[in-house]
Amino acid sequence: MNQTVIVTGASSGIGFAVAEAYLQRGYNVVGNARTIERLKQASDKLGNPVNFLLVPGDIAQPGTAKALFERAVAAFGKVDILINNAGIFIAKPVADYTEQDLDDLLNTNLKGVFFPSQQAAVHMSANKSGHIINITAGIAMQPNVKVPALLPVLIKGGLNQATRALAIELAASNVKVNAVAPGIIATPMHSQDDATQAFYRTLAPTGQTGVTQDVVNAVLYLTESNFTTGTILPVDGGGSAGTW
Asked: Where does the signal sequence lie (predicted)?
């Protein structure tokens, strides 16, 4: 039986690239995004594969996470991998954050990881196998004065620690839990104008930005490893390694 992976935020950017990579490897992929329209657009780009199951819904809602696993099991038997990719990034000085900013980041970046992970923990522990990958942020490992981003650092930094905690909790059930912490990756989330791109390149000692394939490679490494758990793997051109 082919393995099955759930990818949240699968309609664009990193999530789309991850979904595409698993489909190319013959996996069944269950994709989530907020609307069915965005998922259908993604499916069209992928050639409408029969093993790409579309499950729309707000990932901050526990019912969406439950539906992801129920529909995945009904269609494909079980879930082997969960990629918690859905996320938003709001960078601004601390005094400028609004209550709405906080609610939005907590909903997508915290609840949107907790509820699917909770479902995965129960399902995978019962099967005595599985992988959970959280997509976090390199800046949560090494804050940078050039990018004031207290709330993403607070939430993604907590997710980095939660990754380690859950890895320990689920280790006896043969469930691996890891994180990939990207730096600036070329996705629709980031501005493409020349001046902004030049600034982004100053955020890594390599003077580079990344592409989605860089994150895909890290995700595939982690989910294909049987002896790696509790790891936060930066994919950020060295931006989290220290000062330079």
From this structure: none
